[in-house]
Design a protein that fits this description.
By secondary structure, this protein is mostly helical. 87% of the residues lie in helices and 0% in strands. The N terminus is likely disordered.
């Protein structure tokens, strides 16, 4: 092949300069790829940090909900114990008072 001086008798300067152009282009593309890989690495590290933080927050919420559920269970048990006794009239007054308080609070919030 003797096109454009690339054959056996042609000058080697053209081949070497063409090779250096490709080499420079490859180095340029390699730097761009390296920058993208570093950006992806930092992004994945940030995602991992956020996931750990969110998991910790979910564990804390789970603990809080468990303690609240235990407190509610104990309170409902006491209300049931009151209803079994002879203090049914007192329980009715207490429930009516609670409804009244919630109604008043609702009314204040609604007017605001």
């Amino acid at each position: 092949m003797r096109r454009a001086g690339l054959g056996e008798g042609g000058s080697g300067n053209y081949v070497a300069s063409g090779y250096s152009v490709y080499e420079e282009e490859n180095e340029h593309l390699q730097e761009g790829l390296r920058a993208k890989v570093n950006a992806l690495k930092s992004l994945s590290i940030d995602i991992g940090t956020e996931v750990r933080y969110q998991n910790k927050m979910l564990d804390d919420m789970d603990t809080d909900f468990d303690s609240t559920g235990g407190l509610l269970g104990a309170t409902i048990g006491r209300v049931k114990q009151l209803s079994r006794g002879s203090q049914t009239k007192l329980l009715c007054y207490m429930l009516l008072f609670c409804f009244f308080v919630f109604f008043v609070l609702y009314w204040f919030i609604k007017l605001r």
